[in-house]
Specification:
The chain is α/β, with parallel strands linked by helices. It has 15 helices and ten strands.
Length: 331
């Protein structure tokens, strides 16, 4: 049975947000599980992607009719300016009868603006997670996740994470083996070595609150210093409870979780700069190899040593075995 998937697109849409998931679904069709893909825009016709390459043949939501899955692609304009009424109306019309509603990257801003994510867990590109949390405090933003499922809504992280999302949809529809075969064909991970975590973890949008900006700058300048909740609250002369509220409002997470992500990001850079695991643990504020290893396992699903081996070069050694198990992911 063919499943219809409607991609919501618009001028300035990120091409890979569309082409990545579309290719996954195309590969599913080659394996005997066809998807009918339709491009939906506010007025139909041609839209121009962020690269300038046009997407032709789009139809309006009314012309598309009922689709089984709606997938809202992302684009910088969704963060840089208010989501326009036409795009909101198009998405609302397409989503109302769909069994699943998904977004890639900043497409989550469209779903959030419609109120569809209120009271739900969601994610977006790590760089925009704090902005999403501030604009839509009713959404429980998970800034580290590759993709998040809450009811019939599925949101994914930035750009290439749309491939992960599409593989998850195929696995839902046709099982893990089909998804695994597609991953093998596309030479991507069915499950990233980072599990459900985005590898870049510590990005923080500029805080509006001056006290919080000062604190964030001090932590980023010296991640290894004492940054427990009481000491940070004393630094900016507020109560720990008030500081926690500020972090939830502006950063979308707790102070402790944010500090751990900052330290993890610093440790990653130290490892890639050639420092030992022990040195990286000490200079990033984790203290011991074991504490650093637990943080890597919790956030990234791999060891510090494995992370360094994977990311210090994009050119594998000639003797490295080929990726034949369908578990490889694009960098």
């Amino acid at each position: 049975m063919t499943s219809r998937v409607g991609f919501i697109v618009f001028d300035g849409v990120t091409m890979l947000d569309v082409s990545g998931p579309a290719e996954v679904l195309h590969q599913a069709g080659r394996l005997g599980h066809p998807y009918d893909l339709v491009l939906i825009s506010g007025r139909g016709g041609e839209v121009r992607t962020s690269t300038g390459v046009p997407l032709s043949g789009t139809v309006t939501a009314a012309e598309a009719g009922r689709v089984d899955t709606v997938l809202v692609a992302g684009g910088d304009r969704l963060v840089e300016q208010p989501v326009d009424a036409e795009l909101l109306a198009t998405t609302r019309t397409a989503a109302v009868r769909a069994g699943r509603v998904a977004s890639v990257c900043t497409g989550a801003f469209v779903l959030a603006e419609l109120g569809l994510l209120d009271g739900r867990r969601a994610t977006t590109h790590w760089r925009h997670a704090g902005t999403l949390a501030r604009r839509h405090p009713g959404v429980r933003v998970e800034p580290d996740a590759i993709h998040v499922r809450d009811g019939r809504y599925i949101t994914s992280a930035g750009i290439s994470a749309g491939i992960d999302l599409a593989l998850a949809l195929v696995e839902d529809d046709h099982g893990a083996e089909t998804a695994r075969r597609i991953a093998r064909e596309l030479v991507v991970f069915l499950q990233r070595p980072g599990g459900q975590s985005q590898f870049t973890t510590a990005a923080t949008p500029p805080a509006r609150n001056a006290l919080l900006r000062t604190l964030i700058d001090s932590v980023l300048a010296d991640p290894a210093a004492d940054h427990d909740l009481p000491s940070m609250a004393r630094t900016v002369a507020v109560s720990p409870r008030h500081l926690t509220r500020l972090f939830h409002t502006e950063v979308g997470t707790t102070p402790a979780r944010w500090v751990e992500r900052v330290r993890l990001d610093h440790a990653q850079r130290l490892l890639l700069d050639g420092h030992s695991v022990t040195t990286a643990a000490r200079k990033s504020g984790f203290g011991s190899d074991e504490t650093l290893r637990r943080a890597f396992d919790r956030h990234l699903g791999i060891t510090p040593t494995a992370y360094r081996q994977r990311f210090t070069t994009s050119n594998p050694a000639p003797s490295a075995p080929p990726p034949g198990d369908g578990q490889l992911h694009n960098n």
